[in-house]
Design brief:
Layout (H helix, E strand, L loop, with lengths): L9 H24 L12 H5 L4 E6 L4 H4 L2 H9 L3 E6 L9 H14 L7 E3 L15 H14 L4 E5 L3 H4 L1 H15 L8 E5 L4 H4 L6 H6 L4 E4 L2 H12 L7 H9 L5 E6 L1
Parallel strand pairs: 1-2, 1-4, 2-3, 4-5
Antiparallel strand pairs: 5-7, 6-7
Helix pairs in contact: 5-11, 6-8
C-alpha cells in the first residue's frame, strides 16, 4: 500500500489522526468540565445553569440507571450547587434481586452526592422490571407527579424517546413525562430535560465524542473531569449484582460515563 505524505504509511497517519482527535477532545473536556461550569443551557433551562434554588429529580427505571447513564448530569448539577434526588420506578427485580439492588442504589447515589433520604424506589407490581413491558402511562405519571409536587421539584431529568438503550421501561418514563408536560400538569416553572440517545458509534467512543457533543445543538451539556469520571465508575461498581463482563467494557468506553447531552421538552 502506498505511503502517504512525508513517506508515512496509512497506519501511521491513522494513529496521528487519532492522537490529534484525542488531544482536541481532552482540551475541550477540560474547558467544559474543569471550571465547574455546569450545563450550557438556553431559554427556560437557564435557571438550572445558575443552580441557585434548583431542586432536581432524576427519574430512572432501574437501580444502576443513575450511574450507567446519568452520572454526568448528577455530578454536574451537584458541582453547580443544585440539590438532586432520585425516583427509581422499579426495584430491578427481573432476576429476583430487588432487595439487593435497592441497597446498591443507595450506595451508588451516596458516591454521587445524593443521600439515602433523597432516594425513592417505586416497587409496584404493575411497573415490573421487564424489557418487554411498556408501563402504563397514567399510573407512572401519577407516581412521578405526586413526587414532584411533594418535594417542590423544579427540574426533572429522564430518558428521551429512544431510552438510550431502547429499553421499554426507559421509554415509558419519557412517555409519562411527555404526557405530564403536554397536558400542562407539571407545576409552574418545572422544566423537563431528556437525555439524548445517540447512535452505536458515538455511544462507545468515550471522550472522542466530546467535540461532536459540543458542536451539535442541545439544551444542556455535562462533561466530567477525569476525577469525576472515576467517581462515576465507582458509583457503577456499587451495583455488584449487575457487573457482568460487558458492563466493565461499557464503563471504559461508553460516552455516558463522561458526557450527557440533554434537550428540553
Amino acid at each position: 500500500m502506498a505511503a502517504g505524505p512525508w513517506g508515512w504509511g496509512p497506519t501511521a497517519l491513522l494513529a496521528l489522526l487519532l492522537a490529534l482527535l484525542l488531544g482536541g477532545a481532552r482540551r475541550l473536556r477540560r474547558r467544559y468540565a474543569a471550571g465547574g461550569a455546569g450545563p450550557a443551557l438556553r431559554g427556560r433551562g437557564r435557571a438550572a445553569a445558575r443552580a441557585d434554588g434548583v431542586r432536581a429529580l432524576l427519574v430512572t427505571a432501574h437501580p444502576d440507571d443513575e450511574a450507567m447513564f446519568f452520572a454526568p448530569t448528577v455530578l454536574g448539577l451537584g458541582r453547580a450547587g443544585a440539590r438532586a434526588a432520585v425516583l427509581c420506578c422499579s426495584a430491578g427485580n427481573y432476576y429476583n434481586q430487588g432487595e439487593i439492588r435497592k441497597k446498591e442504589l443507595e450506595q451508588s447515589c451516596f458516591l454521587l452526592g445524593i443521600p439515602a433520604s433523597d432516594v425513592t424506589v417505586v416497587d409496584h407490581r404493575d411497573l415490573p422490571d421487564n424489557p418487554a413491558v411498556e408501563w402504563d402511562t397514567q399510573l407512572l405519571a401519577a407516581f412521578v407527579l405526586k413526587h414532584i409536587e411533594a418535594n417542590n421539584i423544579n427540574l426533572v431529568v429522564t430518558f428521551d424517546a429512544g431510552g438510550v438503550s431502547g429499553h421499554a421501561n426507559h421509554i415509558s418514563l419519557y412517555t409519562a413525562l411527555r404526557y405530564l408536560h403536554s397536558e400542562q400538569k407539571l407545576p409552574e416553572g418545572c422544566c423537563v430535560l431528556v437525555l439524548e440517545s445517540v447512535n452505536l458509534f458515538r455511544k462507545y467512543i468515550s471522550v472522542l465524542d466530546v467535540p461532536i457533543s459540543c458542536l451539535l445543538p442541545r439544551d444542556a451539556l455535562f462533561i466530567l473531569t477525569e476525577e469525576e469520571t472515576e467517581q462515576a465508575r465507582s458509583a457503577m461498581r456499587c451495583h455488584r449484582s449487575q457487573l457482568l463482563w460487558f458492563r466493565h467494557i461499557y464503563m471504559l468506553f461508553s460516552r455516558y460515563m463522561v458526557i450527557n447531552s440533554l434537550r428540553l421538552l
